[in-house]
Amino acid sequence: MRALLTPCLVGLCALGSSPAQTPSLGDPELDTALRYLDSLGLPVREDTLFVRATTGAQPSGVVIRGFLAEDRGESFTVWVSVPPHWPGVPKPHQATGHPLARWTLRRTPPGTRPGERVGYEVDDLESLAREALAEYRNERGPDGNLPPPRSFRRVFCARGLYATELCMLAWGIHHRSPQETVLVRDLLESAREIYPRVWHRPEQPEDLTGYLEIDLGHVAFWELLEDFADRTVTRTELRARADTINRLYPHHPHRERAIELEQLLRDSLRVAHAWPRLEELDRLVDSSMRARALVFHLEDQNGLQLGQPGGPDCWADPRGAESPAHRLLALGLHAVPALLDAVEDPRPSRTVGFYRDFVFSHRVLPVGEIAWTVLREIAGRGFANVDAARAWYEDVRERGFEAVLAEATAKGNEVGAVQGAMLLDRAPNSALAHLVAGASRADNDLVRARYLALLVGDLDVPSVHELVRGFAERSAGGFRARITAALMLARTDPETALQALRTVLRDGLAPKPSPLPHAPPLITAPDSAALAARWLLRLHGTDAVAPILEDLLDTTLAPATVELVQTLAGAGPVTAHPLSPRFLDKLRRENGHPDEVVEAATEAVLRGLLEDGRPVTYRAMGFGPEDAREEPTVADVAARALARRWPDRFPFDPSAPAEARERALQHLREAPTRGRE
Q1: How far apart are CA 396 and CA 382, in angstroms?
Q2: CA 576 to CA 227: how far, in whole Å?
Q3: Is 523 left (phi over 0), alpha (psi -120 to 50) or beta?
Q4: What are the two backbone dihedrals, phi and then psi, of residue 279, each rounded to the nearest 5 degrees?
Q5: Mutual orientation of helices 181-198 and 28-39 as an angle, nearest 10°?
Q6: What mean pLDDT do residues 371-400 have?
Q7: Which one, of 251, 128, 132, lies nearest residue 191 by Cα?
Q8: Could you tell me how far CA 465 lies from the centroid of its own chain?
Q9: Which of 8, 191, 305, 368 is most buried by a 10 A CB count?
Q10: Which of 109-123, 205-219, 394-408, 543-557 reaches the highest mean pLDDT?
Q11: Is pLDDT above 70 for 575?
């Protein structure tokens, strides 16, 4: 291993120098571990200050601990660990493979408020180490596995094992305070005791150094993958980082992936000069050449992951329509040949996905995967494999794209609904007959609803009006399709629409027995029903919703009422629908009340339930004191909904005792309505 480390140490020595000789601990294994950490070129000397820095990050500030690298008066730089996330704080610059990164901060002037202040003060590393050691010794369980103390979780190795944190803590003290040999030994011995207890692999490293190398290499590779999503880190830096990690940690568990990444980056950098820059591609007249250049630049596609657990969205590039993927999508069919040739391209992009950001589940999407995503978006459908995609493209070339879309639309399946939307954009005059045919053949409730939503602009056509009316009135039409059809008829045939909605809401919200013993009843589609009620509020105000709610307030349907009320309370402005944006836009333009009218109508509906004292148990947990939960009433649930929606105007504590809740209910009943405060 020493031979592998030697070439990279020359470049790392500039980060800081360690004493030539340090006192021995009298244990060869512990001394070897300290020498190994020395070989990483970590930036600590005997005179290096350990500091506590305030960052000024909002809302309440973020405090970090680390080693002071330099102080330039108006700014200072700290060597810190790279944590999983610091909300509102830019990520430190990790230019090497060792566990610490440089973070430069600009001081704030005197008089800055405490939560916004940026500065540092000297901290006591040795005292913090003793506290951590005492916590481990005094509070560890029978298996010796104790969660790390909060004081140290972000000091040296934020993502590593607790034992690695103790080792690096010992190493820092060993250099700053060589006389603290007892403390250093205790920290290392505790780490040596912890490692076997938390190691969940069949093979065990031979000694403490082996554990350190594997864990530090794991953390370094994790941070490398994350930095692929940071376009301020160049591909040259990423390649150098991958190479350094393999040299510093030759036995780390991701070595094969790191070697592959380094080679792919090397090959990409070698040919990058042969392609025009992204901002120069508009000069290319030939669309096929432009498509191939854009495919090359997919390695720079910087999609984001917007939620977790989940996956990355390559379309969420901050550049929007200027990103390579969006520009390929704009080329349409002209980009298909280049995309077909690229679906197996292994080059890493700038899009990183993960299951959870605090668990090592990260991967960098290859260019081929993004090319496949763009191809499917252009086609409006998925493909089983590349051969199927090539066959589809040959069919498009022979018959034309509109003919292929029309054939798929008329089939009445899920793909056909998507193809129908594309056909409506490309050929609105010829799309109507195929959409009607697809809607008539669809045997899936959601697919049928999607077809109907595409026909919202053609209700004046007799065949479309008859089709929609039939779905609204037929009980076999499916819950979502019937709601969609009824909402479409709300303007042209309000009597039929309201009657259909009343029937479908009763059918959909009526509780059904659960197949599981002792389980609460099931509701067919509460979200869709609440959506329909919200749209009725938008289209017709409380006059349309009141009679339907009166039906639902039947004692046997009280659970459904609770479901509807809670969904109404969390709705906010009506701006989303699972079926079709085109459907929403059409309703909003021609029939919609402003959002403030919807808000007032929602408030009126909820306030109307404050007099309902019937008990409710279905999905209404959390009422009354925690040690004596109580059965709430419909009025309690409505009050909680009002408090969630408008906490300043309708304060209500569901965890209060029954008497206190009743007093609060009376106060809400007497509260002035909107516009009369």
Answers
A1: 15
A2: 34
A3: beta
A4: -75, -10
A5: 90
A6: 94
A7: 132
A8: 41
A9: 191
A10: 394-408
A11: no
Q: Where are the alpha helices (DSSP H) in 144-207?
A: 162-176, 181-198
User: How long a stretch of residues is the chain?
Assistant: 677
Q: What distance lies between CA 535 and its chain's CA centroid?
A: 29
Of 16, 70, 65, residue with least CA distance to 43: 16
Give the helix ranges, DSSP H, for 380-475: 386-399, 401-409, 414-426, 428-441, 445-454, 462-473
Mean pLDDT of the chain: 78
DSSP 578-631: SS-HHHHHHHHHHHPPPHHHHHHHHHHHHHTTTT---B--TT----S-TTS---
Tokens of 95: 């230019």
From CA 573, how far away is CA 279, in angstroms rounded?
A: 39
**pLDDT per position as a tens digit, 410-427:** 999 989 989 998 998 888
Q: Which of 187, 247, 245, 240 is nearest to 221 (CA)?
A: 245
Rounded average pLDDT over 496-513? 68
> Could you tell me the CA-to-CA distances from 270 to 33, 230, 290, 296 in Å, in that order?
39, 21, 20, 13
Q: Measured between alpha carbons, how far is 498 from 472 in angstroms, rounded to an integer?
A: 10
Beta bridge partners of 103: 78
Q: How far is CA 611 from CA 608, 662, 670, in A?
A: 7, 11, 12
The answer to whether 39 touches 9, Cβ cutoff 8 Å, is: yes
Q: Which residues lie below 8 Å from residue 598, measured CB to CB, with a gap of 6+?
A: 534, 537, 538, 573, 574
Q: Can you say whether the dihedral through the CA atoms of 342, 347, 349, 355 is positive or negative?
A: positive
Helix/strand/coil (H, E, C) string of 67-85?
A: EEEEECCCEEEEEEECCCC
CA 532 to chain centre: 28
What single letter denotes the amino acid at residue 76? F
At 133, list the tokens. Answer: 């050691």
Amino acid at 31: D
The amino acid present at 650, given as its one-letter code, is F
- Return phi, psi of residue 371, to 5°: -60, -40
Classified as helix, coil or strand, 103 is: strand
Structure tokens at 100: 């610490």
Which is it for the CA torsion 177, 179, 185, 190, positive or negative? negative
Alpha helices in 278-362, H assignment, sequence order: 287-296, 324-331, 336-342
Tokens of 354: 């993960």
The helix or strand, by DSSP H or E, that contains position 2, with its residue range, turns out to be helix 2-12
Helix H or strand E encompassing 350 = strand 348-353
CB 473 within 8 A of CB 496: yes
Would you say 218 and 248 are in contact if contact means Cβ atoms under 8 Å apart?
no
Chain-centre distance for alpha carbon 283: 37
Residue whose structure tokens are 């940690």? 249
CB 149 within 8 A of CB 202: no
Residues 628 and 555 sit within 8 Å (Cβ to Cβ): no
Structure tokens at 212: 């350190």
Q: At 350, phi and psi to the nearest 5?
A: -105, 20
**Poorest-pLDDT segment among 357-366, 610-619, 648-657:** 610-619
Q: What is each CA distance from 543 to 527, 539, 565, 568, 621, in whole angstroms? A: 21, 10, 17, 16, 31
The DSSP call for residue 633 is B
Q: Up-side HSE of residue 603: CA atoms within 13 Å toward CB?
A: 20
> What residues pair up with 121 in beta bridges, in sequence order?
52
- For 574: left if phi > 0, alpha if psi spans -120 to 50, otherwise beta; the answer is beta
> DSSP assignment, residue 366?
E
Q: Are 328 and 377 in contact (CB under 8 A)?
A: no
